[in-house]
UniProtKB/TrEMBL annotation:
Keywords: Signal. It comes from Streptomyces humidus. Residues 68-111, 150-268 form the NodB homology domain. One of its GO terms (cellular component) is extracellular region. This is NodB homology domain-containing protein. The lineage of its organism: Bacteria, Bacillati, Actinomycetota, Actinomycetes, Kitasatosporales. SUPFAM superfamilies: Glycoside hydrolase/deacetylase, S-adenosyl-L-methionine-dependent methyltransferases. Gene3D superfamilies: Glycoside hydrolase/deacetylase, Vaccinia Virus protein VP39.
Length: 591
């Protein structure tokens, strides 16, 4: 791996691990546990190519401007799992590799599992049947393993986008899916996710580990979190670590992606007295890096992919630098509640012929979605407004069954593609190229749909406008799909290496919390079997904002496709992949 950093001399790599397990784990629940054998292989690879140093050495180089010299790397762990002491520490000690552990102090004090663990464990062990989670306006029907995976995949981004109060309510609801007496057995079954206690943290400190803060409650310090809560997370955890273990000089942002760190939190890391703050944004640490927003690289699940991940971090360092400069800018303002950051820029990224063409390869909405939507029209006027229609995925299917569909999108490329596709010239469709925030008409609609589009709209503007455009009994419906693929874990890890931006989030629960949307009901479809050629499946990802061909560039696009083909090869038969798609529709009135 000696050629990983050829064009970034003097750079350093900071690796992020979570847990290291000597036993087999359930990949659907214990998603952050790395097998000990894989961990050893990665340590040995790193030792052959880097000088492995404590975080303090990197801090000294950053503070006094001294050149890094030989390529350096540091090993860090997030959360504070017990197996870091029991399994990882002996392996690191044997190799004389220094390391740091970022702990969430409330979980260390109480022994409580992390919210993401509770979510997965509850959904995968709860009795079959319908479950309702009112704190985030979600309902699921749990049955086989596939339905539980789909529920977890849908709920996880909702949990990570929520403020701390909502997280606590949701965790309580999830724990209530099982009798209280069942949880000790569940914890035993998933023992690898057990957290350290303070005696264990002190044992790590005595062994030479640097103990840093991962917040008090593992709260994600995004812009939606209350500033007072941000300060509490930073100060309380630092004081508790210093009282129990010694100096606490470093902080790691929970989750740590670009959407998980608000400008206020970034400033407070410095104000609270932390020497360095670590994100989870891919890139290498250079002299230009901001001390409170340093990049880290999530270690891959397979030893053979470590070199590729490090090489990609080197290639994306400029993008990391651009991100931290934007976040650190004094003039950066917090977007209004409910708005996606820089909506105009995000929406503009869909104004691309390549994205419009790739839309046709995405997994379709199950046919039952059409029936659910049409049933919502009731006895009112059979007129539909499809907001952010893209190439008319919904509009072209609904047109034969209604009086009129107004298909609205801000991207002329999407409108042109929709007209070209089958059904695009149906007389009931009226194509409209306009921004959802600015569209106004004397028409009134019995149904407004917004599929795959709300995440880039200014919802505090769009939803009140929708309310005015609806008839008295009309509703806003948000259809969504979830793919169930046997290669999910490998795919998620692969895509994390290549994404040029954070994936779009499901904003429905967020809108409910903000009082912008009053949900009336939700229905799911039966899973539908879908087949796609490997090439079409790969192409469908170019329809996503995070994987645009224009952003990847020709060379990285080729490498992305080649790597994806290799990942999918074991799952394809004669070049064709089979998987299932579940649809869900939530409807209600804009508040």
């Amino acid at each position: 791996m000696t050629d990983i950093l050829p064009h970034l001399p003097g750079a350093a790599a900071v690796l992020c691990y979570h847990g290291v397990s000597a036993d087999a784990v359930d990949p659907d629940v214990q998603t952050v546990q790395l097998p000990a054998e894989t961990f050893c292989e990665q340590l040995d690879q790193l030792a052959r190519s880097f000088e492995l140093v404590p975080l303090g050495v990197l801090a000294d180089h950053l503070s006094d401007g001294r050149p890094m010299g030989a390529p350096k790397a540091a090993v860090t762990f997030d959360d504070g799992y017990r197996n870091v002491l029991d399994v990882a520490e002996p392996l690191l000690r044997e190799r004389r590799i220094p390391f740091a552990v970022f702990v969430s102090t409330r979980h260390i004090s109480t022994g409580e599992r992390f919210p993401t663990h509770v979510l997965r464990a509850a959904l995968h062990t709860a009795p079959p049947g319908e479950v309702r989670l009112p704190s985030v306006a979600r309902a699921y029907r749990l049955g086989d393993r596939a339905s539980r995976r789909q529920a977890a995949a849908d709920l996880l981004p909702v949990l990570k986008a929520a403020d701390l109060r909502t997280v606590h309510r949701l965790v309580g609801e999830l724990r209530g899916l099982l009798p209280a007496d069942d949880w000790p057995e569940v914890d035993k079954r998933f023992a690898a996710d057990a957290v350290l206690d303070w005696a264990g943290v002190r044992a790590l400190a005595r062994a030479g580990a640097e103990i840093g803060s991962h917040g008090h409650d593992h709260a994600i310090l995004h812009e939606r979190e209350n500033p007072a809560e941000v300060r509490r997370q930073l100060t309380h955890s630092k004081r508790e670590i210093e009282a129990r273990c010694g100096p606490c000089r470093f902080f790691a942002y929970p989750n740590g992606g670009p959407a998980d760190i608000g400008p206020y939190a970034a400033r407070q890391v410095q104000a609270t007295g932390y020497r360095l703050g670590f994100a989870a944004v891919r890139g290498l640490l250079t002299a230009e890096a901001a001390p409170n927003l340093l990049p880290r690289i999530f270690a891959p699940a397979e030893a053979g992919r470590l070199q590729a991940r490090l090489a990609d971090a080197a290639a994306t360092t400029d993008r990391y630098l651009s991100w931290h400069r934007g976040l650190s800018s004094p003039g950066r303002q917090k977007p209004p509640a409910g708005a996606a950051p820089d909506r105009a820029a995000l929406a503009g990224r869909y104004r691309s012929e390549s994205v419009a063409r790739a839309y046709g390869t995405r997994a379709p909405y199950p046919p039952q979605v059409d029936g659910i939507l049409l049933s919502l029209l009731g006895a009112g006027p059979r007129t539909v407004l499809d907001l952010g229609c893209g190439p008319g995925t919904l509009a072209r299917r609904l047109a034969p069954h209604v009086q009129r569909v107004d298909a609205l999108d801000a991207a002329p490329e999407m409108i042109a593609e929709g007209r070209r596709l089958p059904g695009g010239e149906h007389p009931a469709i009226r194509w409209i190229c306009a921004d959802a925030e600015e569209y106004d008409t004397d028409e009134r609609y019995g149904l407004i749909t917004a599929g795959r589009s709300l995440h880039w709209m200014r919802c505090e503007t769009v939803l009140p406008r929708c309310r005015r455009l609806l008839t008295g009994g009309g509703v806003l419906a948000v259809p969504r799909t979830t793919r169930e693929v046997p290669w999910r874990a490998a795919e998620e890890s692969f895509l994390a290496d290549w994404a040029t931006s954070r994936p779009a989030r499901d904003v429905t629960a967020e809108l409910v919390r903000q009082g912008l949307f009053d949900p009336w009901g939700e229905r799911s479809t039966e899973p539908v079997a879908v087949s796609r050629t490997v090439e079409d499946y790969i192409m469908s990802f170019h329809a996503r904002e995070a994987f645009r061909v224009e952003d990847l560039g020709p060379e990285r696009t080729r490498a992305f496709r080649e790597g994806f083909r290799e990942l999918l090869r074991p799952y394809a038969r004669d070049g064709v992949l089979g998987f299932t798609v579940l649809g869900r529709v939530t409807w209600g009135r804009p508040a």
